[in-house]
Every structure is written in structure tokens, then in C-alpha cells.
Amino acid sequence: MKTALGLDFGILKDNFRSKIMEQLAMLTSLEGLYLNGQIKIGDLPTGIPDGTRVIVTFLNSGGIDLESLGINKADAQILRSSLFTFAEEWDSPEMSIYDNYDAAKKR
Question: What is the pLDDT of residues 42-71, one digit of tens each?
């Protein structure tokens, strides 16, 4: 089985495969709001040790203005259909490891 990154987990030895999957399962995403210079997070995950590194990504609160990026409706349709090819892999059972951190951690 090859992933979107081109990794073939079938050729890895079982012990390395499980260690890699364990590390991938440790990714946790949170949703919050940026208000008055602070990031407000609703529910904090449990079991995350102090000093754990984080990446904060600010999302545009509106949609993406494709026209301002030079993408017309025809180009947007081509882009949409090109990205659609990732949907099958993203929705595959193997990707469910990203759905729930706590459940994946207990495996």
C-alpha cells in the first residue's frame, strides 16, 4: 500500500511499520479562535506533556477568493477535479488513524 507521500508500508519490516504508525497517530488537531491577541482553545486534549511542540495555523474566516489569485471558473474546475483524486486515499480506512487521537494512542 502506497501513501500520498509515496511511502510503501508493505516493504517495511513489521516493527518499523508499527513504530511509524504510532508516531503518525500522535498528531493532534485542535480548533480555536484568535481573540484580542490570544488563541482561545475549547477542549484541550489529555495526556499531552508540557513542552510539547505545536504548530498554529491561522485560517481565513471567509472562503478563498480564487479570482484574486488569477484562477477563473474553468481553472477552478480543473483544480477541483485534480484534487478529487486524493479523496479516495484520504477517505480510505488506513487514514482513519488520523480521526481520533485518543483511540489510536490506545492501540
Answer: 888 888 888 888 888 888 767 778 888 898
Q: Which of 45, 18, 57, 41 is nearest to 101 (CA)?
A: 45
Mean pLDDT score of the chain: 76
| pTM (two decimals) | 0.34
Query: Would you report the helix, strand and coil content of the chain in percent, each value rounded to 5?
Result: 45, 10, 45
Closest residue by Cα to residue 45 from 59, 60, 20, 25: 25
Q: Where are the strands (E) in the chain, listed by range?
A: 32-35, 38-41
Distance between CA 27 and CA 79 in Å, rounded?
28
